[in-house]
Amino acid sequence: MLTLTLYYATNRNHIGERWSPDSYGQDFSSDRANNLRFGKVCVEVSANKVKEYLNSTVDKRSGDGESLAGYIEKKLRKKHLITAFEEPKNLADVTTTQLPSVKVFQALKKQMETKQDLVIFIHGFNVDWFEAVASALALELMLNRHSLNNEEQKDTCVFLFSWPSDGAMMKNKAYLSDRNDARDSSIAVARGFLKLRDFLMTLRPTHKDPSIKECGQQLHLLCHSMGNYVLQHALVSLDKLNNQKRFPQLFQHIFMCAPDVDDNIFEEDRPMVNLYRLAKQVTVYYNNGDLAMYISDYTKGNTDRLGHNGTARPSQLHNKVSQVNCSKIVGGITEHSYYLWATVNEDIRQSIDGVPYEDSTRNRQSKSAQVWRLT
Predict the structure, then answer these.
(1) Local structure of residue 336 (DSSP, 8 states)
(2) Which residue, among 241, 275, 269, has the nearest Cα to 256 in the 3D structure?
(3) How far apart are CA 287 and CA 311, in angstroms?
(4) Contact 221, 119 (CB under 8 A)
(5) Which pTM does this prediction carry?
(6) How many Cβ atoms are within 10 Å of 262's Cβ, its own excluded?
């Protein structure tokens, strides 16, 4: 058996005991929508089963992350252990290291010190707690599938932010409800970004404690589907919470997978015009055959989606932003969650590893300096 461990932050309501919950629900925390709880979840899975899914062939490429996520979800629903990091009752009497967020960041730092990059994952629409955890764990395993037999390749760990997305109503109303919840979760995400920034500041060489230092690894952000809508509104909240100061460059890469946001989102006076300030590189993955994007376009009254046709005006993209058309190599059940699928997942991993976009080992064709097609 193999024990999988995932650290998380959530603004969902707890089910059961607050600090040892059975799971998290479809509503916001009773404290408020911007209240963040931190913790970890553990689940036992079959090592052989995991290896089987990682080696499964999908369209002549290795790795079936979607089926792996489904398997992990079933195991989670049967048995799991959640440990929430308890908040001190009187914040005035505690040190910074006793804060739940700092405890999680310190645990993640220990993982990163073993030469592991960190990917923060924000899931999309119609995802309950168990599905969110399973997707995050499958993402981590898929990103690391080639390092299992390669000691020189560093691993990547995944950290989950889960917002109350369940789609537990009629389809149209469920979508609009989750969209509202995504927007209302933005302050929690912005607060999380600032907590992360403050923790990273304590690792700088100028900090008073010389024993504390940076680990040398990179941070990345991956948002899927409506998780990009969470990010869109988090940028607005971050601007307010940060007193309209320049955004902190927290990430090496931001990966926007099947983004359920407007296709002109990067243009002047639009919410994500300054997204590039948060990272050194931003990559948009889209699929012309994405049924979820089609439904969002034509049945929910939204304008054209970024995840369906890419940006409206590619020639106006900031030089940090690029987009990748995945339409040629995804389809069927992989049409929307293709960040877990062999070729796209491998492309994400190559970016994490710093492989140049034009490298011959990439399955990409260039249409222009910032527009690519996966082959």
Answers:
(1) S
(2) 275
(3) 12
(4) yes
(5) 0.91
(6) 20
* Tens digit of pLDDT at every position of the chain (375 positions): 899 999 999 999 999 998 899 999 999 888 877 788 999 999 999 999 999 999 988 767 778 999 999 999 999 999 999 999 988 776 666 666 678 888 888 888 888 887 788 999 999 988 999 999 999 999 999 999 876 556 566 789 999 999 998 756 555 667 778 888 888 898 889 888 888 888 877 765 544 544 444 556 889 999 999 999 999 999 988 888 877 677 778 899 999 999 999 999 999 888 899 999 999 999 999 998 776 665 555 455 567 889 888 998 988 899 999 999 998 887 655 578 899 988 899 999 999 999 998 888 888 888 777 888 888
Sorted by where each begins, the domain ranges of the chain are 92-374
Please say whether the beta carbons of 257 and 225 come within 8 A. Answer: yes
Domain 92-374: state its class: alpha beta
Please list, in sequence order, all residues whose beta carbon lies within 8 angstroms of the beta carbon of residue 263, skipping any fewer than 6 positions away. 303, 304, 305, 306, 308, 309, 310, 311, 312
